[in-house]
Amino acid sequence: MRRPVALRLYAALATTAVAIAAGAVLSMPQASAATGGVTGYATQNGGTTGGAGGQTVRASTGTAIHAALCGRASSSTPIIIEVSGTINHGNTTKVSGDSCNTAAGVIELKQISNVSIIGVGGGAVFDQLGIHIRDSSNIIIQNVTVRNVKKSGSPTSNGGDAIGMESTVRNIWVDHVTLEASGGESEGFDGLFDLKDNVQYVTLSYSVLRNSGRGGLVGSSESDRSNGFITYHHNLYENIDSRTPLLRGGIAHIYNNSYVSLHESGINSRAGARAKVDNNYFRNSKDVLGTFYTSEAGYWQVSGNIFDNVTWSSPGSDTNPAGPNPQSNTTVSIPYSYSLDGASCVPNIVSQTAGANKGNQVSNGNCSPTTPTTGPTNPTPRPTTPTPTNPTPGPTTPTPTQPSGTNLSIGAGADGSSKASGTSYGNVRDGNMGTYWSPAGSTGSISIKWGSATSVSRINIREASGAVGGIGSWRVLNADTGGVLTSGSGAGVITFAQTSLTKITFDITSSTGAPRVAEFETYAS
User: Fold this and answer.
1) For a surface tag, which of 124, 192, 216, 284 has the fewest beta carbons within 10 Å of its beta carbon?
2) Are 254 and 276 in contact (CB under 8 A)?
3) Mean of pLDDT values over 82-105
């Protein structure tokens, strides 16, 4: 593959050098600790909380980061590591302990869980030093810069990946980071954000990826199709040859990203992958969407994108560009709530919010930046069967006030997810506490539905005898739209803003033992 990136980068650096020589001041806003809630697929499968609730420690060397991991009571003890300064080969050594598995020359997050690495102070820069995540879950990386990680030359780190994940990784949120190289493979660099060998439930948000031959991949080969459920939103891809990203199998949701100067190809969906591509802005680029360099097709669903000075190749045996008039060839259902900025404002909102040292600002959904104040609130993940969880609203506590009026569930319909043997959906709307519905596992959903729109503002979840207290966290969904009406934990009376709908879903996302819902009552008030 050609590698023109380095020549273009040198020109950019020369321009910067001239500005500095002329006395220009390049400002760097002060970084701040993690803010805002987790978004995208990282909200699923139990959610992503990182080290929330654990000890907070400071580190200014890679060795100190490793020491913080190794000093925990166990490999799953929550910890928040606030990082400042420059982390490099000279200050990153292996540290041993029962709660860690580290290595020199790389930030090693291996066989661990429940960790946040947050850049603070004047900024955290991982210089020529990659971050490696392996056999781990529930990790947050926020507000850091990772630059010039090499796989050949000297020094080398992490196979040349700025951030790499592999081998049974679940629930990772990478947010407000800057990932950059100084060229392509011939200059010794590889991918900026690579996922392979069974990596699932990952979100990359509000980040900058630039000056590299390869943006990133999902799946290391056409046969590595165990990865998926990846969200990319509000990121800037700039001066990249290809792989923004490359997808092999699985599902990706790609929305509100800004793409500038993609030289060979962009979103490369292949080997059965399916990508939902919404409201992105592509500018001054080539072949920004399609299946490239293989005959094994991938698929896409497109809406609201802007293609500004984009050129397209002619179709061939291993080239299937989506353009010049991209049309959907699949459909992708997204299980979480999200707000789309209009594509026309994406370059502006991404320039204000994406990358490290931007104050962790996010879009307010109306093309304006805002600084959130709340931290991640989703429950700790269970790296097992995928289960949707609440993407944004905070938990609510069921009120003890009993509903008034008519139970609208009597006589209505019911359905849901897989049910345990011997139970029935209809048991939750028969007025009989002696019968119940139970999911096939510890999580699942049950719905009440009507033939016409019905106003509901309160429900009452009654657990069967012998199972009271078993239901843990849950969401209440408007099944017509997929929107989250409220969320919380524990059965009982639950209130929310009155909503007109034809179907309402109670989605159990955690429980102790097998949950049993005897009655799913619905009320207008």
Assistant:
1) 284
2) yes
3) 97
